[in-house]
Amino acid sequence: TSNAMHQQISSFTKETVQIREDLKKVQEEMKNISSFQEIFKTPKLRGEWGEASLDHILSEYFPQELYSRQHQFLSGEKVDFIFNLPNGKLLPIDAKFFSDNFARLIEKKNEEERNFFQKKFVQDIKFNIDKISSKYILPSENTVDYALMYLPAEAIFHHIMFNLKDENIADYARRKKVTLSSPNTIYLTLKTIEHWFRD
Question: What sections of the chain are H helices per DSSP?
């Protein structure tokens, strides 16, 4: 099993490199736009970018029948993606792009201001974790009892996981049955869940 795990991690590493190469191509194409950052000032465009990023990864590494976009629940709520697991259960995945307060947090030099925007940033994260937990984890509609929150910006994911240790966001998310993922971790996360259900 350790050999199989090593092979899986090795495969994941190769595919992560490929994802980075693909994203480099996208970035090259975006050089023609006067200001790439301007795109992320609009919440709607940020949301579309996050969904497009997730769609790209899923389409590259999984067959179309394993996932679907904009799955609607009986409540009328729509989750960005549903991943079909081997036992017929559904895994909800929602993309969230936290930019405004994160950008302000990074920009500020004054510690008091940084602390202020860090609190706002943490509130944003927890609000969206709560939203995913309450709206998309619906075993009565055949979902598993947890969901994934996909963060399309690796820098934001890294800040949450490693620079907010005192806040323990990962633990908060676990209590709400939400798993955080990013472009570099989503594939391995999904493959691990898929193998777990298959075994």
Answer: 2-30, 36-39, 43-61, 100-107, 111-136, 154-158, 169-175, 186-198
